[in-house]
Design a protein that fits this description.
Elements (H helix, E strand, L loop, with lengths): L2 H6 L1 E8 L5 H11 L22 H14 L1 E6 L2 E6 L8 H7 L5 E7 L6 H13 L3 E6 L8 H11 L3 E4 L1 E4 L7 E4 L4 E5 L10 E4 L5 H7 L3 H14 L5 H5 L3 E6 L8 H11 L5 E3 L4 E3 L6 E9 L8 E9 L2 E2 L3 E4 L4 E4 L4 E4 L2 E4 L2 E2 L4 E6 L8 E3 L16 E7 L5 H13 L4 E5 L5 E5 L3 H14 L3 E6 L3 E7 L2 H10 L4 E3 L5 E5 L2 H10 L3 E4 L5
Parallel strand pairs: 1-3, 1-4, 4-5, 5-11, 6-11
Antiparallel strand pairs: 2-3, 7-8, 8-9, 9-10, 12-13, 14-15, 14-23, 15-22, 16-21, 17-18, 17-23, 19-20, 19-22, 24-26, 24-27, 25-26, 25-29, 28-30, 28-31, 29-30
Helix pairs in contact: 3-12, 11-12
The structure holds guanosine-5',3'-tetraphosphate (G4P).
Length: 525
């Protein structure tokens, strides 16, 4: 098959949601409908259990399982589908942001009783920044839900994107009957005796016929009225608007009960983008280019402390990746060869000889890779990554074992390369500060330093509000600010100045007193 055909048939996407909206359930059902698994339950084991908010041992166990399921590839009706799993746990949000750099589109799952929730809004910001096309799946229609119009308004307002319903629910709660597929103009009524397996569906193309009425009474009139209102009130579906991320198609359903999942999958495959361009600092790379390029978006440390090797997840951006071929590692200038690159299929990992744009491969790494690294056939290229976001939790980190100073430095270095947390150095006292998006990471870091590097650390609480990257329009003002605020100044991993604001008030004062300095919560602005 030509590279063009391989690209056209690929769909690489992520599923995101606020915890508990149904991301895991939907992922499983897509695998089930896609024929990749026969019984649901495989992905569930990858989920960090709700009760585990401070149980990092459990997280470690989950981390091991999650390597296998963090990319789920499968072949379905001529398409090669790659689902990239994103951790739902908010303490691992940074991981999700990074995974979003490797997807070509996104499905957002929303709970029909709750509407758009905080985590979804935040993730949508990342999609917006990257202009990633999104499809919304409003889940749990089998439970008492908000009115569909209200939900659509909520999505439009909260996610700041125009919406276009492509399916419509027939009632909700215990009376939920299924969905009318607007995209294909057909009614699907499902049975759900066994929720873990495929149910049979009934297709009725003419909902105005008596045949449909007998299944959906007493909701036939409401459905017809709703559909009329919806067709007048929302823009018609235009694929180009969806691809340019200005329009979000919306589907309704119940992942748990298999309602609306097939409609979503079929439409998704039809309209979702195949791998396109990837922007590097030097130039924009098109997926159809003959020469291979790719970048590392995730690094997974080996669970076995005796083997320090790691697995780097690489997204192929252009050309074909081949096993045992020499590739150029842009950052270090080294040439690297990979004898056992891994492909991820839904239920297994296997060695792959060739991979195409959109595919994710796992490369065994002995310490060469950092998140964001680029591989090419010789060209010096550096793909643009996702900026760092300000952490929410900060602690000084200290060596707790004077004999293991080196191990601690190395361990911290590796963990930061993996993107577990962000490291800052206080400019006044040279002390190391770890910043995370959730408190859980501090336990994970301490545990991993001990088990993988034989190092031990202790923390000292730091009450800070945010880390702010600075943009200055006056050199004199910046110097003045840095001098006055030296105790709150730090360097990030790239040596950039960062202001560690103690409170929202302190930041506001800084903004007022130093109008020629802009303070940003993300590292690239
Ligand atoms: P997440 O990955 O987004 O965090 O959500 P997950 O799929 O784990 O779903 C969260 C809970 O919502 C689960 O229940 C799941 O069974 C339920 N759920 C998902 N989709 C639907 C749906 O369409 N309808 C209904 N009624 N429930 C749904 P749980 O009790 O937390 O877990 P479990 O014990 O059922 O596994």
């Amino acid at each position: 098959m030509s590279i063009k055909k391989e690209i056209q048939r690929r769909r690489t996407f992520g599923i995101i949601s606020h915890p508990d909206a149904g991301k895991t359930t939907l992922t499983e059902k897509l695998l089930l409908f896609g024929g990749a698994i026969q019984v649901a339950g495989a992905v569930k084991s990858n989920k960090i259990k709700k009760g585990a908010t401070s149980d990092f041992m459990e997280i470690e166990r989950q981390r091991g399982i999650s390597v296998a399921t963090s990319v789920m590839g499968f072949e379905y009706e001529g398409y090669k589908v790659n689902i990239l799993d994103t951790p739902g746990h908010k303490d691992f949000a940074e991981d999700t942001y990074r995974t979003l750099t490797a997807v070509d589109s996104v499905i957002i799952v929303i709970d029909a009783a709750k509407g758009v929730e905080a985590q979804t809004r935040k993730l949508m910001e990342v999609c917006r920044m990257r202009r990633t096309p999104v499809i919304v799946f409003i889940n749990k229609m089998d439970r008492p839900a908000l009115d569909p119009f209200e939900l659509l308004d909520d999505v439009e307002k909260e996610l700041e994107i125009e919406v276009c319903p492509l399916s419509w629910p027939i009632s909700n709660g215990p009376d939920f009957r299924g969905v009318f597929n607007i995209y294909e103009q057909k009614l699907n009524l499902f049975t759900s005796e066994d929720k873990q397996r495929l149910g049979s569906s009934r297709e009725i193309t003419d909902i105005f016929s008596g045949e449909a009425d007998k299944f959906i009474q007493p909701h036939a009139t409401t459905l017809k009225e709703d559909l009329e209102l919806a067709s007048g009130g929302y823009p018609a579906f235009e694929r180009n608007d969806y691809l340019s991320a200005t329009l979000a198609p919306v589907f309704f359903g119940s992942a748990l009960n298999n309602f609306g999942v097939q409609d979503l999958l079929d439409c998704f495959l039809d309209i979702a983008p195949s791998p396109g361009n990837t922007v590097a600092h030097e130039r924009t790379v098109n997926s159809g280019e003959e020469r291979f390029t790719g970048f590392v978006f995730k690094i997974h440390a080996n669970m076995d402390p005796n083997h320090r090797d790691r697995l780097a997840f690489v997204k192929v951006c252009s050309g074909a990746f081949e096993r045992n071929k020499a590739y150029f590692h842009s950052r270090s200038g080294k040439t690297l060869k990979f004898s056992s690159p891994t492909a991820f299929m839904a239920e297994k990992k296997s060695i792959v000889d060739k991979a195409w744009p959109g595919d994710i491969i796992g490369l065994h790494d002995t310490g060469n890779f950092k998140i964001g690294d680029t591989l090419t056939e010789g060209e010096k290229l550096n793909f643009k990554g996702i900026p760092s976001f300000s952490p929410e939790f900060f602690r000084y980190v200290e060596n707790a074992d004077p004999l293991k100073f080196k191990q601690l430095a190395k361990g911290l270095d590796h963990l930061m390369d993996e993107g577990v947390a962000q490291l800052f150095i206080n400019q006044a006292n040279g002390r190391k500060i770890i910043g995370t998006v959730g408190p859980l990471q501090f336990d994970v870091i301490q545990f991993r330093l001990q088990h993988e590097y034989g190092a031990s650390c202790r923390y000292e609480l730091l009450n800070l509000y945010k880390a702010c990257w600075m943009e200055s329009f006056s050199k004199a003002q910046l110097e003045d600010f840095k001098m006055r605020k030296i105790h709150n100044m730090a360097y990030d991993k790239q040596g950039r100045d960062v202001f560690l604001a103690e409170s929202a008030y302190a930041l506001q004062m800084a903004r007022e007193k130093f109008p020629n300095i802009k303070f940003h919560f993300i590292s690239e602005y």
